[in-house]
Amino acid sequence: MAPPLSSWPWASLGIYKYFLLGPLVWKVAQEWAEQGGAPLGSPWLHLLALFSARGLTYQFWFSYSNMLFLTRRRRVVPDGVDFRQVDHEWDWDNFLVLQTLIGAALVNGPLPLLPGLKDLRVWDPRGLGIALLLHVGFSEPVFYWAHRALHGAPLFGPYHAGHHSTPVTQPLTAGFGTPLEALLLTLTMGVPLAGAFLMGAGSLGLVYVHLLTFDYLRSMGYSNVEVISHRVFEAVPPLRYLIYTPTYLSLHHREKDSNFCLFMPLFDLLGGTLNSKSWELQKEIYKGKNDGVPEFVFLVHVVDIMSSMHVPFVLRSISSVPFENHLILLPFWPVALVYGMLMWCCSKTFLVSFYYLRGRLHQTWSVPRHGFQYFIPAAKAGINRQIELAILRADRMGVKVLSLAALNKNEALNGGGTLFVDKHPDLRVRVVHGNTLTAAVILNEIPSNTKEVFLTGATSKLGRAIALYLCWKKIRVIMLTMSSERFLKIQREAPAEFQQYLVQVTKYQAAQNCKTWLVGKWLSPREQRWAPPGTHFHQFVVPPIIGFRRDCTYGKLAAMRLPKDVQGLGSCEYSMERGVVHACHAGGVVHFLEGWEHHEVGALDVDRIDVVWKAALKHGLTPV
């Protein structure tokens, strides 16, 4: 049996835990109806407003700390947050629910401790002074000694070990803990407020200022990003004992034997538990000690407005699962649209996420353009310029391989990367489109007993390679293309004895008896109707087609699962499952792991399809 206050009573409710706040919502609705308008003086309304504002405070710091394009040089712990930590901290806001319920009990109960709670003044400056004195005189020492006690043998295992099990602190980590830890925080946060009210100096403004400042400092300390310059502490040395830093907190989180204070290191100094490395390490980190150089870069672009919110610095609960059009994102659509337009006007390629594979840093960068912009003729030069600048930046940094994603390697845009390699023949970074592995994944999905396939997008880079590979295997390829010239050019590439296996058609009706469709071009519902029942649609079209046929099956985009020793991966790549990346991303990883010195741009080398496939399997990448 679990010790008391070591687990949350509503743990099994999942997202339905928020219904515990339903009575507060009902109270507000009743008062709204009675007053014929917003009950601005309602304590229930303010409790709900505080719940939201406090949650947004942690979310603000979470978003900021994970905007790697702003914070990467000042990260305290260079490791990434993995899926295990994401799931472990999923219910980080339990303490907010608890404290809101406690607030509701205080408002509704006949307690004489908080006089005037239902008729608060807007502001009383005396209350701020009283709360500050009580925080320093009561909250800080009580938290310090209670925190030290939690690190003792009887209490640490059941009550505090879970909090320390997360390797990288995040603002959301600040809220993750047991009910006992939440009650300790409630005490240290609530006593200064209670004291101000008991002395007749309480106010509504004080409640908001005190609670939000408390949360702001907590989430700042757990942000894993150094935000206070070492020069401030050098200019005013006593200040280092009055306010902690993310480095200070991170040392406690990792070493567990020092830096126990709430916000003020003064109490660690008095208690003899101040870590001597705190200030020098803080200085080194602020100067960029942990700013590593990636050896592999995957260069992506934004797909559309909705998917632009599927990034690690928006909502972790969204980015850590495969992308879908969640209803919760709809209210933020206008914000994402405006942000997208600003990116178009004044942004450059930026860092989105990272992970480590066998000790090597892999990063994902994004070109600040949406998918539809790649089809605007006037935008072509600007997009290529963004890609070129990213390649040159990677070259200066010492990146070994840069892999182009999706439309960044579009044939009509830059010849599958050929434009950049031809323009800069002395590049040290290897530019890779990754399509060789994409082709290999698609080809290895086709059942070995297949005798005939129907291929759309047949004259594209991928379509050409797939057709030539299959005809060499004596598989009949029905190639849908209106261009006889392009078809004949591909057919002539095949040895004479295999050319008969390549057949040109111009209508979908020609495939009405073929149950293996390789889709490299968008298919409408009308076009899909020509497929016979039981057809499987293999896809290499972006975006993937919509499955309209219930009597058919639809494959996902070509992808591979990263090796098991990947570290710090905590976000999903678009619609891919956890730990799965697009085949072109995996192709770049294989290119890097193999140490190949050639660029992989332009037309696919069909002879290398099997070579790349075997290399991928050798390095632990697996088909999905």
TrEMBL record:
Keywords recorded for this protein, A-Z: Endoplasmic reticulum, Lyase, Membrane, NADP, Transmembrane, Transmembrane helix
Localization of this protein: Endoplasmic reticulum membrane
GO molecular function list: aldehyde oxygenase (deformylating) activity; iron ion binding; oxidoreductase activity
Coarse class of the protein's main subcellular location: endoplasmic reticulum
Pfam families tied to this protein: CER1-like_C, FA_hydroxylase
Transmembrane segments: 182-209, 296-315, 335-357
One cellular component term from this protein's GO annotations in UniProt: endoplasmic reticulum membrane
SUPFAM superfamilies in UniProt: NAD(P)-binding Rossmann-fold domains (SSF51735)
Keyword Aminoacyl-tRNA synthetase applies: no
Fatty acid hydroxylase domain boundaries: 133-273
EC number: 4.1.99.5
InterPro entries per record: CER1-like_C (IPR021940), Fatty_acid_hydroxylase (IPR006694), NAD(P)-bd_dom_sf (IPR036291), Sterol_Desaturase_Related (IPR050307)
GO biological process: lipid biosynthetic process; response to stress
Complexes and interactors: Homodimer.
Family annotation (PANTHER family): STEROL DESATURASE (PTHR11863)
Family (UniProt): Belongs to the sterol desaturase family.
Protein name: aldehyde oxygenase (deformylating)
Natural source organism: Triticum aestivum (Wheat)
